[in-house]
Amino acid sequence: MTALAAKAEALWKSQIETWPMLADGLDALLACEYRTVLIGGLRMELQWNPGRIISVTAKVDPQSIAA
Q1: Beta strand 33-39 with 42-48: parallel, antiparallel or unpaired?
Q2: What would the 3-class secondary structure string for the chain be?
Q3: What pTM, to 2 d.p., does this model score?
Q4: Torsion angle in degrees (nearest 10) through CA of 52, 54, 55, 61
Q5: Model confidence over 8-50: pLDDT tens digits?
């Protein structure tokens, strides 16, 4: 591993430890389920991410963003 790669990995680990929302999001990604289906001869990869509802329903008004 190069010195730059080691620094990047250390930063990544530090951010996961520092930001609970990041750690929770990564855990949600690990909980995703995948399925491949054929639709009209096209291969489609489906993903079910139960944690996704949290981010898509997040408040985006100025007061919530400022908090």
Answers
A1: antiparallel
A2: CCHHHHHHHHHHHHHHHHCHHHHHHHHHHHCCEEEEEEECCEEEEEEECCCHHHHHCCCCCHHHHHC
A3: 0.60
A4: 160
A5: 999 999 999 999 989 998 999 999 999 999 999 999 999 999 8
Contact 28, 51 (CB under 8 A): yes
Strand partners, 46: 35
39 compared with 55, residue with greater pLDDT:
39
Which residues are CB-neighbours of 64 under 8 A, at least 6 positions away?
Answer: 58
